[in-house]
Design goal:
The chain has 2 domains: 83 residues, Winged helix-like DNA-binding domain superfamily/Winged helix DNA-binding domain (Arc Repressor Mutant, subunit A, Orthogonal Bundle), CATH 1.10.10.10; 138 residues, GntR ligand-binding domain-like (Four Helix Bundle (Hemerythrin (Met), subunit A)), CATH 1.20.120. The protein contains 10 helices and 2 strands. It has a two-stranded antiparallel ribbon. Helix 9 runs antiparallel to helix 10. The chain is globular. The chain starts with a helix and ends with a helix.
């Protein structure tokens, strides 16, 4: 137990946090550690250990863990409590099929409402992605790029569902780039998406997005197939 506490301290930092910031700080540190692979799938996160580590009560820890569970980064297991979720679940390909439905609808709703500033912001994320080589940052920028094109969709529940799925993909994207030895992603699809959005060509943008997400689904399918063989 002492060894695990020491490991958590090394991964998350052991300094105490102000009570009024505790939930958000703990959530952010755990989220970053999971996405960056410093907390591996299957690692159990005990409320009391984390509360002691950060010098807070169990309440903000509990809330932080609930938020991460809602983002599919943690899952609750019998006799273990909250554990870091598998990198990719067996339903990942089905999840991507759902993402196609959700994200194309958000894009349809959002494009007519996007203005020049929205388009400029989306293009700025592409420029950053062209030069970024840190895997965690690539994942974050990829999420921000997609949300910048969906953000004007009036359906807020739809946007929350999409952002949760993008959080999950952010983690896999980091792993995929690392395992493949890739420094960055090609931005051709992203540029095509922004150009179509700028022209208000809704169905063209939707077609590009569908192809983009389906390519990612194939990548996940191949990964899962390899895991089963190994």
């Amino acid at each position: 137990m002492a060894e695990k506490s020491k490991l958590l301290s090394e991964i998350l930092g052991g300094e105490q946090v102000p009570p009024h910031l505790a939930r958000s700080v703990i959530e952010e540190r755990l989220r970053n550690a999971i996405i960056e692979g410093r907390l591996a799938p299957g690692v159990a996160l005990r409320q009391q250990e984390l509360a002691t580590l950060f010098g807070v009560s169990r309440m903000p820890v509990r809330e932080a863990l609930r938020q991460l569970e809602a983002q599919s980064l943690l899952q609750v297991e019998a006799h273990k409590g909250a554990v870091v979720a598998p990198l990719i679940g067996e339903d990942a390909v089905d999840t991507y099929a759902l993402r196609v439905i959700l994200e194309t609808e958000a894009l349809r709703q959002s494009i007519p409402l996007l203005d020049a500033d929205d388009i400029a912001q989306a293009r700025s994320y592409i420029e950053l992605l062209e030069t970024e080589t840190r895997y965690a940052e690539i994942g974050r920028l990829n999420r921000l790029f997609h949300m910048s094109l969906y953000r004007k969709a009036p359906n807020q529940k739809l946007l929350r569902l999409i952002e949760n799925e993008l959080n999950e993909e952010e983690r896999f994207l980091r792993f995929h780039l690392s395992s493949m030895g890739l420094g960055k992603l090609t931005q051709d699809d992203h540029r095509g998406l922004v150009d179509a959005a700028n022209d208000k060509a809704v169905e063209e943008a939707v077609s590009i997005l569908q192809k983009h997400l389906n390519k990612a689904a194939v990548t996940m399918k191949n990964y899962l197939s390899k895991q089963r063989k190994d």
